[in-house]
Amino acid sequence: MNRIKQKLQEDKKILSIYFSAGYPNLDDTVKIIEDLEKNGVDLIEIGLPFSDPLADGPTIQESSTAALKNGMNTALLFEQLKDIRKSVSIPLILMGYFNPVLQYGVEEFCAKCEQVGIDGLILPDLPLDVYTKEYEAIFKKHGLINVFLITPQTSDERIQAIDDASEGFIYMVSSASTTGAKQGFGAEQSDYFDRITNMQLKNPQIVGFGISNAETFKQATKQAKGAIIGSAFIKHLTANGVEGIGDFVEQIR
Fold it and tell me: Is residue 227 a contact partner of residue 217, using CB atoms and an 8 Å limit?
């Protein structure tokens, strides 16, 4: 069974951490992954840096730009991850934009993901209909779960279509803004969380955008299966380096 599906069956709230591969230093990728698992993180989203990250807030954009300047690219990331399954057992997801995947070659990219032990992909700019018509068979051939995003503005009809096409979890974007840490969730988010809960989707939801501390993690996971922290973790890396990962995770749990 895919590691993502296994993890989702556990009776716990999922803490997922996002970071940009190759940041703060080019060779930090593997150490960050290993340290996150050692400190109790359940799932890791490895950001594939891209030159035009439209959906990302300034913190992730800056880390992505720095990683590219450090020399990170798709081929190098796969090289860094070639032995990752010797030391890490939790689910690993690559998150990025579709353009680098297309440039690499979709079949080749998915085959490489399977080879190094990647469990899923999050490609926000890959439309649902394009995925189902052109790429779903390739993803499934290589054991990859494709994770789709929904927002408060996504219609019930589209959410249902995404749920039907999904096999792992749905990435529930907490607001229509770009990524970034926030202090809490307002009435709009509460209504949105209630709406999704009432739809009784077959796939669990993991909330992203705006989770930065124990309080927002608790709020986000009151109804959802888990939450994703990105910008706040990258800020912590920037300020404290790789050595401070344990302290960060401890503050969330």
Answer: yes
